[in-house]
């Protein structure tokens, strides 16, 4: 049995993703490693001893003692505004993990993969995309990324770079950029039929996003004939 | 001794005595589940208790709805850190369902439509501590919140309150369920912060 201990984590680097989100790269000595899709608990302690904890998905695969989290500001949040606006390189938090053994992709897996992200639900799915690349896996991935408008895109530059075997489709819900192949709108059956894999390929499907999005996307996957046990979901908010 | 995060002040909340350590309050009702939402037609729904002697007690939806019901108002605590105060449910106490069940088993494995399982000591289901509920806040329980019926065990983390509940198997030995085999604590007391294995 492995006991999860709180570890000191020092912020090593900040990457701005959007106007309201940033990726925090922490250095965590003796980090035990993790799988793509897992998450960590973050604990903040104020000078007067007050503490707050939240869970965040890991944004990348294991990379020595470096741990990446991408955090979006919650308008009325207690922890996320600190992580997106206040914390600076050199500051410390405590981390504990990794947690979760279900919503994970393992590099030795051979099944094709459909990733369906709603908004910041892209974070654990991006960890899977990066884990695939890191492992040199040939498994075909298809990523459907639903987001309000182009300004909300995380990892924009990295996802624009060619990555053989990875197809990315953007599904804009409010405003699509000029020349987009699809009008703005919520995810539909056709999106998953065209941007995913047929059920007969028996892909592993990972869906992450806000509850209403996950409900809709998972129901569409079922309607396309995907087996419920191949559809893994993770929701927030 | 915790490490201090420079510049973090936090939001000191007054309701500390009802908030287990590490939890924060929400007003909405977050949903967490591992896969698609199962949809169970009421005419096919049933709830069963199987004893260690393989005696099965079954209720159809109609039989279940004819049982005396209660409307507990309870606080619920999710391992992902949210707590929701004063949630009101309607359903049948496990004490009612266990009235005619003869068993000396100490453990219960709860199982759901969709394949989910979770385990707990049988005594944590009895003596007014747990219910099979079919209404929340005066409305029929939505599928996404576990409808038509779910278990509610408010004194444990909410993953023990299995959605889409289908039955309870009584066992002489403890048998870890879905999250309990995926790194989460076997018992899950929020007041002792039993989140993960080894806590």
From TrEMBL, chain A:
Q: Which InterPro entries match?
A: Cbr1-like_FAD-bd_dom (IPR008333), FAD-bd_FR_type (IPR017927), FNR_nucleotide-bd (IPR039261), MRET (IPR050415), OxRdtase_FAD/NAD-bd (IPR001433), Riboflavin_synthase-like_b-brl (IPR017938)
* One Pfam family of this chain: NAD_binding_1
Q: Which cofactor does it need?
A: FAD
List keywords of the entry alphabetically: 2Fe-2S, Iron, Iron-sulfur, Metal-binding
Occurrences of domain FAD-binding FR-type (ranges): 4-105
**Protein's name in the database:** Ferredoxin-NADP reductase
Organism of origin is Nonomuraea angiospora
From which lineage does this chain's organism come? Bacteria, Bacillati, Actinomycetota, Actinomycetes, Streptosporangiales
UniProtKB/TrEMBL annotation, chain B:
The UniProt entry, under InterPro entries, shows: OxRdtase_Mopterin-bd_dom, OxRdtase_Mopterin-bd_sf
For this protein, the record's CDD domains field holds:
arch_bact_SO_family_Moco
Q: Where are the annotated coiled coils located?
A: none
Residue ranges constituting the Oxidoreductase molybdopterin-binding domain according to the UniProt record: 35-179
Task: Name the chain's protein.
Answer: DMSO/TMAO reductase YedYZ molybdopterin-dependent catalytic subunit
Its source organism is: Nonomuraea angiospora
């Amino acid at each position: 049995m492995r006991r999860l201990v709180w570890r000191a984590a020092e912020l090593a680097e900040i990457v701005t993703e959007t106007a309201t989100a940033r990726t925090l790269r922490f250095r965590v000595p003796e980090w035990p490693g993790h799988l793509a899709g897992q998450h960590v608990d973050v604990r903040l302690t104020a000078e007067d001893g007050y503490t707050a904890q939240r869970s965040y998905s890991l944004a990348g695969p294991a990379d020595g003692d470096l741990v990446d989290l991408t955090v979006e500001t919650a308008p009325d949040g207690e922890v996320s505004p600190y992580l997106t606006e206040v914390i600076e390189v050199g500051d410390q938090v405590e981390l504990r993990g990794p947690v979760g053994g279900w919503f994970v992709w393992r590099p030795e897996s051979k099944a094709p993969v459909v990733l369906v992200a709603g908004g910041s639900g892209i974070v654990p799915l991006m960890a899977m995309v990066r884990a695939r690349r890191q492992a040199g896996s040939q498994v075909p991935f298809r990523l459907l990324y639903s987001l309000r408008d182009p300004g909300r895109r995380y990892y924009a530059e990295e996802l624009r770079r060619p990555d053989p075997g990875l197809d990315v489709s953007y599904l804009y819900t409010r405003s699509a950029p000029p020349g987009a192949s699809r009008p703005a709108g919520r995810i539909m059956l056709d999106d998953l039929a065209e941007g995913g894999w047929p059920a007969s390929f028996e892909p592993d499907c990972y869906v992450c996003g806000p509850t209403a999005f996950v409900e809709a996307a998972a129901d569409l996957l079922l309607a396309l004939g995907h087996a419920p046990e191949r559809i893994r979901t993770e929701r927030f908010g | 001794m915790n490490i201090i995060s420079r510049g973090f002040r936090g939001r000191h909340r007054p309701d500390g005595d009802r908030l287990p350590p590490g939890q924060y309050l929400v007003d909405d009702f977050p949903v967490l589940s591992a896969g698609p939402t199962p949809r169970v037609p009421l005419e096919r729904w049933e709830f069963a208790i199987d004893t260690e002697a393989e005696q099965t007690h079954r209720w159809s939806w109609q039989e279940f709805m004819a049982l005396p019901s209660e409307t507990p108002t309870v606080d619920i605590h999710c391992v992902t850190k949210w707590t929701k105060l004063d949630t009101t449910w309607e359903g049948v106490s496990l004490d009612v369902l266990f009235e005619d069940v003869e068993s000396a088993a100490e453990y219960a494995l709860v199982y759901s439509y969709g394949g989910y399982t979770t385990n707990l000591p049988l005594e944590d289901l009895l003596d007014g501590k747990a219910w099979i509920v079919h209404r929340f806040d005066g409305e029929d329980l939505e599928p996404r919140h576990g409808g038509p019926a779910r278990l509610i065990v408010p004194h444990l983390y909410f993953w023990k309150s299995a959605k889409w509940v289908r039955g309870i198997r009584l066992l002489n030995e403890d048998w870890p369920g879905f999250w309990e085999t995926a790194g989460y604590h076997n018992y899950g007391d929020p007041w002792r912060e039993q989140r993960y294995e080894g806590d």
